[in-house]
Amino acid sequence: MSLTLITGGSGSGKSAWAENLAVALCPGEKLYWATMPPGGPEGAARIARHRALRSGKGFRTLECPQLPPAADLPAGGTVLLEDLSNLLANHLFSPHPPQDPAAFLLEGLRPLAARCGHLLVVSNEVFSDGIPYDPETRAFLTHLGALHRALAGQADLVVEVVCGLPLVLKGALPHV
């Protein structure tokens, strides 16, 4: 099993880079775990854009805004989680949020990662804009930062994508 954390800013190319890495790691069927609920025309357009970008790459899509049962993921397969920040928001802002959302997600991702041959986790780099936020948004950023640190500690490979280029922060790019 390998765990890869891929971060980057909005429009950085992180999703396309992660998809291409998944294709290189597994030329066969791959699972694309989409966590964004379709909310409104802008969300629907974003989802349609992502579907078009991965068309023909061999992905089966699991649209699941929460943690799925491990049995829903292919044993020994390649799974691309798109994305961790949406998954966190879906839990944090649910009617019954977990007491510690970061710990909840880390515990929930453990059996999923153990089931996969490759788990690629895409997340947003949202920490460097310097804008003051309301307390609710600051709490979200605190939980996301905790998730990034914990996953980076567990990951075999950590990459930040900038302008479509991978900056390796931990590990080495696979030779595929």
Automatic annotation (TrEMBL):
Keyword Transferase: yes
Residue ranges that the Swiss-Prot or TrEMBL entry lists as coiled coil: none
Gene3D superfamilies in the record: P-loop containing nucleotide triphosphate hydrolases
Domain of life of the source: Bacteria
GO BP annotations listed: cobalamin biosynthetic process
Enzyme Commission (EC) number: 2.7.1.156, 2.7.7.62
Keyword ATP-binding in record: yes
An annotated Gene Ontology molecular function: GTP binding
Pathway listed: Cofactor biosynthesis; adenosylcobalamin biosynthesis; adenosylcobalamin from cob(II)yrinate a,c-diamide: step 6/7; Cofactor biosynthesis; adenosylcobalamin biosynthesis; adenosylcobalamin from cob(II)yrinate a,c-diamide: step 5/7
Catalysed reactions, semicolon-separated: adenosylcob(III)inamide phosphate + GTP + H(+) = adenosylcob(III)inamide-GDP + diphosphate; adenosylcob(III)inamide + ATP = adenosylcob(III)inamide phosphate + ADP + H(+); adenosylcob(III)inamide + GTP = adenosylcob(III)inamide phosphate + GDP + H(+)
Record-linked Pfam families: CobU
Active site location: H50
Residues annotated as binding GTP: G8, G9, S10, G11, S12, G13, K14, S15, R51, A52, L53, R54, E63, E82
Keyword annotations of the record: ATP-binding, Cobalamin biosynthesis, GTP-binding, Kinase, Nucleotide-binding, Nucleotidyltransferase, Transferase
UniProt xrefs under PANTHER family: BIFUNCTIONAL ADENOSYLCOBALAMIN BIOSYNTHESIS PROTEIN COBU (PTHR34848:SF1), PTHR34848
Family named by the database record: Belongs to the CobU/CobP family.
Chain's role: Catalyzes ATP-dependent phosphorylation of adenosylcobinamide and addition of GMP to adenosylcobinamide phosphate.
Protein name listed in UniProt: Adenosylcobinamide kinase
Source organism per UniProt: Candidatus Flavonifractor merdigallinarum
Lineage: Bacteria, Bacillati, Bacillota, Clostridia, Eubacteriales
